[in-house]
Amino acid sequence: MSEPAPQPNSHKALILLDLLCQSWRPYALIAALLLACALPGFISLQPLDRDESRFVQATTQMFESGDFIRISFQDEPRNKKPIGIHWLQAATAGPLDGAETRTIQAFRLPSLLGGLLAALCVFQIGVRLFDRRVGLIAAIAIGGGLLLSTEAGIAKTDAALAGFTALAYLGMAGLRSAPGQANVRWASWALWGGLGMAALIKGPIGPLLIILSAVMLIAWERDLSWVRRAMHWPAILLAATIVLPWYIAIWHATNGQFFIDAVGQDLAPKLAGQSENKAVPPGAHLLLSPVIFWPGSVLIPLGFWMAWHGRREAGIRFLLAWLIPGWIMFEAAPAKLAHYTLPVHGALLLLGAAGLVKGAWQTAWVRWSAIGILSLGTLVMTLVPILLAQDVAPDAKGRAIQTSAIIAIVGLAGLGLVIRRHHLAAVGLIAAAVVTSVMIKGVFVPALPQLDVSARVSTALVREGLHPRLSPGQPGPLVGAGYQEPSLIFLTRSDSALSSVATATAAARLGSGVVVNQSDNMDAQLSEALKARGLAISWRGEPITGLNYSKGDPVSLRIGQVIAADADAKPQ
């Protein structure tokens, strides 16, 4: 495909791009951008409900029990995802934080590193398939994109899965593009090492994506030579060494129940549309793309252009085999969350970056489609603070308008540079991504007390000397009802009894802290139940109000302490 004659502005942009592509600069730029977009939430956001707090609480209990094979949340087995993310969290939280401090950032570090691995692997795949220009553009788009930079600041499986899946695809790309013996060995290690870690983090998802891509490539090209090069037995043994010991150990530790529950209670309901996430029609992920890729969503139409015009090129075929089967699989599944498609985002952005370098921007429909998608994403991101304040914190409306105004200014500036085809358009979009991340994840959301209920409860317990882990003497387990979010259990103690009035009553001890939701009339119910045991509640401080955003319900929580009902009463 011939290169179009460069325009003056595009010539300046290429000079800047080539300057950034030299030596170590791409790696520094990619890492700096990802950190700038991820760290605001990584540092500032409280433990998030419900998945993040469930993961970190389960990891914390491994330290407490000394059992690093079985996964539990309080007394219940958590037979959903494999052990990988818990081991990675233990590897960072243990040395950096200790088992009892429970600083959420130490548990988030594997996600941050996984996001960085994903962006760097996208860069290297671009280098191997095309050149450093394409690799850097795509890596900047995914590293500064809304989804990866957000997931990189949350202690769950998704950023780590994206990183190791990208590593496996890098190995596959190396096997196809460089058949020399040394390169084959390196690529085989990357492929099988990435596959092993992906399988240990989220079970079949990562390996299934690779298998689907391989099947599509083999059917399309009728070429098995790269598959034969992948059969490097030491690398295959590495994958087996990563995966099999724990899978065998958990089978013996649970008599196979882990696999029954993981399939029957986690995977199967999602495939049948019967999970806690309601079934959504196909196409939802595509409709979300202008937002979750933003501002890299500007590359989406260029990716479609490149997919068609470059379909006979080996590199484009590889990217299509990476993108299409996985995207169809995620769209076909009834349960859909925005982060599900993250492991295939690199393929679409690499297609878009290749299209940009090949001159797709000169095509009118591509250019205006890209501008339209970028405009839509910018509008949505501008409205986020206002809509959040309207639903959650009406008293923060003024601050929300200010935040939205700042996002609008940087977003429109970047959009204007794109429309004008200015050579600094990419710089404008990077600035928009960083400023938006800082303003929303680092400033606005952490300043909303309505969303910080668990941390405020924990602080109040410390202030009243009732915190079961941090207060002097460590009072008895926290008990209560009406509010049992995993974040509060993580911030207090693993034996907190918050599931029901009956459970709280049975666990209550003299001196125990109490937290109940007045909105459900739980304070009166718990007081009455404790009375039968000769116990009462001494209420402390003012109610803590906010939003249980996991359920979308307002809460009004009272803090208290279990005391004897009278001077002569003795608890049973």
From TrEMBL:
Record Pfam families: PMT
Catalytic activity, EC: 2.4.2.43
GO MF terms, alphabetically ordered: 4-amino-4-deoxy-L-arabinose transferase activity; mannosyltransferase activity
Coiled-coil segments on the chain, per record: none
InterPro entries recorded: ArnT-like_N (IPR003342), LipidA_mod_glycosyltrf_83 (IPR050297)
Main EC class the enzyme belongs to: transferase
Transmembrane segments annotated in the record for this chain: 27-45, 112-130, 136-154, 161-178, 190-218, 230-249, 287-307, 314-330, 342-361, 368-388, 400-419, 426-448
Leader sequence segment: none
Compartment list: Cell membrane
The protein, known as: Undecaprenyl phosphate-alpha-4-amino-4-deoxy-L-arabinose arabinosyl transferase
Source organism (scientific name): Candidatus Phycosocius bacilliformis
